[in-house]
Amino acid sequence: MATEELSAATCALPEALRLDLTRRIESGELQLPMLPEVARKLLSEEFRERATAREMGELIHRDQTLAGNILRVANSAAFSAGVPIVSLQQAVVRMGLERIRELTMAVVLESGVFQVPVAKERVLALWKHSAAAGAFAKEVARVRRANVEGAFLCGLFHDLGKPVVLLALFEACKQKREAPSEDLQAAAVKELHVPAGHFLARRWALPDSVGDAIASHHLAEQGEPVSDHAVTAALGSHLARWALEQGDGEPAREEMIRDALWPRLNLYPSDAETVLSKKAEVVKFAEAFG
Amino acid sequence: MSARYDVAVVGSGPAGQKAAIQAAKAGRRVAVIEKQSSAGGACVHFGTIPSKTLRETTLAWNAFRRKTRETVDLKLPENTKVAALMAHLDAVIRGHQAYIGDQLRRNGIDYVQGIARFKDPHTLAVRRIDGGLEEVGAGIVILAPGSRPRTPPEVPVDHEHILDSDSILSLIYLPASLTVLGAGVIACEYASIFAALGVKVTIVDKGPLPLGFLDPEISRRYLAGFEALGGTFKGNAKHEQAEFDGLEVSLRLANGEDVRAEKLLCTLGRVACLDGLNLEAAGLCSTDRYIAVNEHFQTQVPHIYAAGDVIGPPALAASSMEQGRRAACHALGLPAGERSALTPVGIYAIPEVASVGLSEPEAIKQFGGCMVGRARFAELARGHIAGITDGLLKIVADAAGRKLLGVQIVGEGAAELIHLGQMGLIHGCDVDLFIDYVFNFPTLAEAYRVAAFDLIEQRQARAVGSVAAGA
Ligand SMILES: Cc1cc2nc3c(=O)[nH]c(=O)nc-3n(C[C@H](O)[C@H](O)[C@H](O)COP(=O)(O)OP(=O)(O)OC[C@H]3O[C@@H](n4cnc5c(N)ncnc54)[C@H](O)[C@@H]3O)c2cc1C
Ligand SMILES: [Fe+2]
Prior knowledge:
The complex is a heterodimer.
Chain A: H1 2-7, H2 15-26, H3 36-43, H4 45-50, H5 53-62, H6 64-74, H7 77-80, H8 88-95, H9 97-111, H10 120-144, H11 148-157, H12 161-174, H13 182-203, H14 208-221, H15 228-245, H16 250-257, H17 261-264, H18 269-276, H19 279-287
Helix pairs in contact in A: 2-12, 2-13, 5-6, 6-8, 6-9, 8-9, 10-11, 10-15, 10-18, 10-19, 11-14, 11-15, 12-13, 13-14, 14-15
Chain B: E1 2-10, H1 14-25, E2 30-34, H2 42-45, H3 48-68, H4 82-85, H5 89-106, E3 110-113, E4 115-120, E5 123-127, E6 133-143, E7 147-149, E8 162-164, E9 177-181, H6 185-196, E10 200-204, H7 216-228, E11 232-234, E12 239-244, E13 249-253, E14 258-261, E15 263-266, E16 270-272, E17 304-306, H8 317-331, E18 345-347, E19 353-357, H9 360-367, E20 371-376, H10 381-386, E21 392-397, E22 404-410, H11 414-426, H12 433-436, H13 446-470
Parallel strand pairs in B: 1-2, 1-6, 2-3, 6-17, 8-15, 9-10, 9-15, 10-11
Antiparallel strand pairs in B: 4-5, 5-6, 7-16, 12-13, 13-14, 18-19, 19-22, 20-21, 21-22
Helix pairs in contact in B: 1-8, 3-6
The structure holds flavin-adenine dinucleotide (FAD) and fe (ii) ion.
């Protein structure tokens, strides 16, 4: 499905286009878009007046645009007083629920709802994948007794570059008045999503571990020696794909348990079982957009 | 795959290591089966070494603050990364692991990574990390699987908002506030370390004092130190339910009170790691909390031994090592030397606490009375120089004020200082020992002399008193 198609590029990206996209990405003018469903929810009176700390927390954890912007603002000079904010929970406690509420409104108004004609299914799939990867990375960290909040961000943002690249590509093609072909989208994403994500992570002052996970999650898949953050993000991503796209079949489940990334984190098949048993919760969390 | 050994040891913590090395030194073929990829056990991965490393940094930080108070105004920024505070932890752990790994290798011990489970009394099935299964057969099996934190259902540990001692050091920022549930050794160590780092810490416990197993005078001293760091102790408090509400962790108490903090650390004791070992297949009882052993650390199945945290208190690194060594000696028919019942206790809180032998209440209970000598670190030159003036050393002697029965210390250096008292106890000395010999000056060890003088003065006063009474 959507996320898989994107990484299975068959054609190469023309050099001129690659330069154009890189320039657009690095101009810093691209706003990570907001899903219409999320914007609607945030703007609804019901939510504005009655959202509890828990609901608010869940929402900002689920949506990479909201999460990224909250961390960006929390880490801005005005708020941070030189102290890095490395988790959303930390940002919420530090800024207070009221400020977070105001901030989410500001993000909705600023970012503009996803207007570009990127296939809606694809965008939603990217967002769900990101949320599920974050939620699974959290479970992986839990069984390892590693930091849960940090692992979540690594999973949530590992493919941050994908929507950014798509946005840049659609912008670039708008001038030519034609939508980019599926192949071209896939090629652009494959080639550029890692540097694009890494660039954005730096601009937003996301924690170093997140930058690391973005930069190295594919290297982790190739068995390269990378940080535990990167392996956790890659594993979160595999788990998300399994849970959201591969149905309930036993062979897929078996294959997931045998994934070569588990031993890299010193996790046993029994640990993998524990993480896989959270599937229903994770899927519920990730599917709850809108 | 199947391999045969003279001795198979389950677990590579302090108990397992020493058992394996002892057996290997006796020329036996030994395998250590360990779940983790490197040796060390709880001591290295989740316990002793990491917590002491954080403590060391905290102390250095506090000492720096103390010494520069007049000139530099330093405050540890809120939200400081714990990981940054433990920057040299990785190096410490790697160093220690390398040392242990090297020791195992040098002694020709096979390291089998996997999770062990009894297949029959002489065979362990080992689940490898890749999912494969391996069998290890052995004439002697020594179980040293250690312990893990006890987490009751009303405290749902998620390692995110509600943590235990395995996950507390995974924090990547210092929370503004922390509730510590429980007031045992691990609880009081972490509570005081985090308080010293500027976190608002509240200890909640069912007992009236923290470190309730100690002499109350010593516990109160710890408490005073903890409060001076900004900590709060809620004693005689029964907890009902802990819950994360989206913003904070609330801990509801039976009296209706709600103790709230950004994070909660659950430290309500430890349980032996027995699940998964399939003890029935070896003919051992699996329903007990710990594995039962005799004085030689032998279970009811003669060729199976157990040592370390898995057999219950005192559950300390040093005693685990000694138990492991003794288990191996007995199993192989080697002399193990005399067994000393005297284990010192060191509590690496801020302030540090240590105890050996009998405390004042214990001596009164056992002998009907005792005499106590005290030395306050404020009376010592070294205490003033080092800025350690809030310490106390207590010598417990028999009712005549002569024979040494025990020593308790609160204050920096306590865990080291206690060994002087231990040596005195082992050799059955009188308290006069500490006066008859010259100590270095200025040192904290002088506290022994000061406390001994205090005792001897009381002894003499009593002698004069009784002469006067007799006259
Ligand atoms: C926070 C903390 C602070 C502490 N501070 C101190 C201190 O200051 N001083 C002190 O003396 N003590 C301290 N302790 C206690 C000390 O760490 C323990 O007493 C000691 O580690 C126990 O040693 P052990 O060999 O019995 O078990 P452990 O050290 O727990 O080792 C057991 C090993 O067995 C492995 N294992 C378990 N089951 C299996 C299986 N089925 N198959 C394969 N492998 C298995 C585990 O992975 C583990 O590595 C502290 C403990 C904690 C948690
Ligand atoms: Fe990717």
